[in-house]
Amino acid sequence: MNKVKPSLAKGTRDFGPEEMEIREYVINIFKNIFDLFGFRSIQTPSIENIDTLTGNYGDEGDKLIFRILNSGDFLKKSDENDFKESLKLKSKISSKALRYDLTVPLARFVSMNQEKISIPFKRYQIQPVWRADRPQKGRFREFYQCDVDYIGTNSIVCEAEIIDLVYTLFDKLKIYDIDFKLNNRKILQGIAEVNGLSDNFNELCVLIDKIDKIGLEKFEKELIRKDYNSKTVKSITEIFNFNGSNLEKINFIEKVISSSQLGKDGVKEIKKLMDVNDNFTIDFSLARGLSYYTSSIFEVKSNKSNIGSLCGGGRYDNLTENFGLKDMPGIGISFGIERIFELLKEKKDPVLQDGKNKILLSYLDSRYLPNCLVIAKKLRDEGISVDLISDNLKLKKQLKYANKNNIPFVMIVGEDEIKSNSFTFKSMENGKQVKNSIDEIISTMKSLKSNE
Amino acid sequence: MNKVKPSLAKGTRDFGPEEMEIREYVINIFKNIFDLFGFRSIQTPSIENIDTLTGNYGDEGDKLIFRILNSGDFLKKSDENDFKESLKLKSKISSKALRYDLTVPLARFVSMNQEKISIPFKRYQIQPVWRADRPQKGRFREFYQCDVDYIGTNSIVCEAEIIDLVYTLFDKLKIYDIDFKLNNRKILQGIAEVNGLSDNFNELCVLIDKIDKIGLEKFEKELIRKDYNSKTVKSITEIFNFNGSNLEKINFIEKVISSSQLGKDGVKEIKKLMDVNDNFTIDFSLARGLSYYTSSIFEVKSNKSNIGSLCGGGRYDNLTENFGLKDMPGIGISFGIERIFELLKEKKDPVLQDGKNKILLSYLDSRYLPNCLVIAKKLRDEGISVDLISDNLKLKKQLKYANKNNIPFVMIVGEDEIKSNSFTFKSMENGKQVKNSIDEIISTMKSLKSNE
Fold first, then answer.
1. Nearest to A3 among B67, B113, B324 (CB)
2. Which residues pair with A296 in a beta bridge?
3. Structural domains in chain B, sorted by start
4. Neighboring chain B residues of A68 at a CB cutoff of 8 Å
């Protein structure tokens, strides 16, 4: 064996025990809430055929797909001439690639499993994706995505449920002060239409998407720079300047775009949603880049932290068109789960402390290790996590181990302790210690657990 | 967009909701038990530098590593001449690869994080690995591994704890009738030594490993075929013919290999373990192929099912040697988690039924959907999972949806029901239905949950 300097592949990360604690805590909350709302988990393979992936993410996206070299004799279909055309060679030597997002695999899954699933199909999926992006602070080549979708339904009940789900979820994560912003692409199309800008719709959306970052003044300048006429500029900026309640906003926009049928449809959809769940803020400047959204779009931000969008999504007309399956409209929401991990890491929420209910069984001498094994079994039978150090370490080093591993309690085992069934039970958090029997320690730990 | 016939990459699988239910149920039990025994979770990236991986799995293993094509201009370091040497070209166009197992990444992790972790380091890891194997029944190119290791300790307490952990785990999974078989490579070396076969040790291990499959008679024939002299053959087969209790076996072997120091060390280790935990069966015919095991080796099989080994592992002298870090002995156990998924799938344990505590809110007419939303919120606030169909479906189709999604209860919402707070509450399992208020339904669901 050759000695190798250990290193991580560019843009990848290890997650040690502390990090995993936070990640699993968050993922469990996500799963529980999705389950509460009747969504069911699926997983798709990390590796997809290249045809499944390419053509969905635009030219730039396609370049970021990690391709897998064919196994065995990877050159068998190629010859030296292919060398001059690297694209051709590429497709001959790699026919599979790593998952780039969770949406395309979902579309493939639904297309392949029409008979097995029931419509509407409500699924969630929490899995890593890979992108050959240039790594930078906060951007990695492997990261988790977390998507929730309804497939095969046009009902506004979906939006109503998604709003509730989002608030329930962030409440559970103790991320308060969030704002659920909602818009409808049909309204944006209406705005374009009444201003004679239907052909510039995508460009307009890109500009509108920037308002949040650059402000209205600069947005106005951008419109002028793009040669929009002054009447149009005035009429458009007026819309984004309008403030008021949801009802005021919807009445205002209804008048502005009254000559656009599409626009009126969008207004109707928002009104219908307001009837059943109005726990959102209408924001006409929300455009969301992805062009496949066709109706409701939404985004959630924290008012307290400038960490950006926590989640976002929207309605699409047909998820599975690319795989030849028609009439599969749906609505999806994607959670920025990596951002949420970071947010909670910064908060240092005590709930996230590892080993909340864990005991380190320490021994005064390693000859008591067999006794420790018996005590460990007793405690574990009661559901209490127990660690003990397998080797002969001085008590001081054992306590250091407890600290390093965030173990909040230490129980010290020696000859007298065993004889008298009276053990020193020490809290590593505040240093306090008492003398307790095994049963007393068990009930202390159990009461801590039930207070969680 | 081009229409694409949807397909899975060779050797990969989708996991739909039913399948995911089993997988997550099992993984949660694993995590809880590992936590109970003080092990902590880590995750390593799916992608590793190629140098980290190759050279660890033998030539055959190296061929099964999935390599990733370099991104961007993947040919920039190559020219047409490389075409004649595909191995050279391969290394120039792919510098990363997919994780092949969890042991090498663990060794890299420990080597890179010596300062952060505390020794002994107790970690578990449950993640997929990828192998470019020829797919066949039960063998996939992407599958989960589940490893538990102690790093940096020689203590026999590890073996004692692992035995307890294994029994606790399979008990929780309701897989009874398991047998924890244990041996020690030093004893096998002793057997080789006293028979003058030290140079043939690896060959001998391979043969011994087969006893389980081919039986002792064929094993004897194999020894003869390999030109072992008749005295040796007799002396070796006698060992594997010996039956008795652990104590009888260990006393027997102690005499047989009394002239081998290494053999005696192995005997001493097993005796020491018997003093603290004798919940295992000594099996001298257990050899375990992997040559890096140096002391205790073990394997667990189900006596009832012939599904093969459920888990296995052993002690190694140095995990991190390859990365230049010395003195990191340890002991590891690897669970055949994919086999365990299959085993439980076959058993159809009712605990595994999805949606055990889930209600489908059905409506007699879709105009009651807004009422359903209010009721759903009430139930979910009490921790009850609720699904409702967003679209206008006839009641019969709603019930069909409940069946297809394994939802055990249906609550029917109509005008009279809302006015009188008395809802039809139907069990989909036995067809029984009662009239209940919302509060009554909540307490029924809660009592079901607490009976779990």
1. B324
2. A184
3. 17-346 (3.30.930.10), 358-450 (3.40.50.800)
4. 66-69, 98
